[in-house]
Write a structure and sequence with these properties.
11 strands, mainly beta, globular
Length: about 130
């Protein structure tokens, strides 16, 4: 069983930056692809970024490409999401997710993930 805990959310002005972290315990973190999703009350959970088990491959939603960077440190069981040039439309609850069976074809589908954190709120003011 894998437990995921996000941190780093908060309130920031448009154009600012935040760094989210997700720390894992239990399971074998280094074997899981790790993904960030976000959700607002008006929308379904939305794919943000994914990183492969060894950090060698990263994938981003078009809406965050060039502004967000996902990274991981397997020695620390942690995955980060550096968010720059934030926009009000980035406001959401951000979740990290993990699963051992994620491939490129299914990484954007929230239903494919077995493990989820509790979420951290990011609010971007205009």
């Amino acid at each position: 069983q894998v437990q995921l805990v996000e941190s780093g959310g908060g309130l920031v002005q448009a154009g600012g930056s935040l760094r989210l972290s997700c720390t894992a315990s239990g399971g074998t973190f280094s074997t899981y692809a790790m993904t960030w999703f976000r959700q607002t009350p008006e929308k379904e959970r939305e794919f943000v970024a994914c990183i492969s088990w060894n950090g060698g491959d990263t994938y981003y939603a078009d809406s965050v490409k060039g502004r967000f960077t996902i990274s991981r440190d397997n020695a620390k069981n942690r995955v980060d999401l550096q968010m720059n040039s934030l926009k009000p439309e980035d406001t959401a609850v951000y979740y990290c997710a993990a699963d051992g069976a994620i491939i490129v074809a299914n990484m954007r589908d929230a239903d494919e993930y077995e493990y989820w954190g509790q979420g951290t709120q990011v609010t971007v003011s205009s």
